[in-house]
Write a structure and sequence with these properties.
95 residues; mainly alpha; single chain
């Protein structure tokens, strides 16, 4: 799902002109993403085999999600809340 979502966002931003396609950057990002995913997968296999406890991965994922939630709450508590609706098209008047 992440692949499809990020790909559709990439195409959208390319058509909108927000992103300029640069082959060097794309190759670098693809290589970094692939190598990071491979390293993470190999490391997780080694940790599970060494500890002989597969639930350690579930615990690690839960802890990282909880940390992300705590950081999000801490950031939103310090920020002023603005619950007003803004006009979608940037115009203030009506015709």
């Amino acid at each position: 799902m992440i692949l499809f979502t990020s790909s559709s966002n990439l195409v959208h931003y390319l058509f909108q002109g927000v992103l300029a396609p640069q082959l060097g950057y794309a190759v670098w990002a693809l290589g970094l993403g692939f190598s990071s995913a491979l390293l993470g997968r190999l490391l997780s296999i080694r940790v599970v085999q060494r500890l002989n406890h597969p639930s350690i991965m579930v615990l690690t994922l839960g802890a990282s999600l909880f940390l992300a939630l705590a950081l999000l709450v801490a950031r939103s508590v310090g920020a002023p809340q603005n619950w007003r609706f803004a006009p979608l098209c940037g115009g203030g008047g009506g015709s």
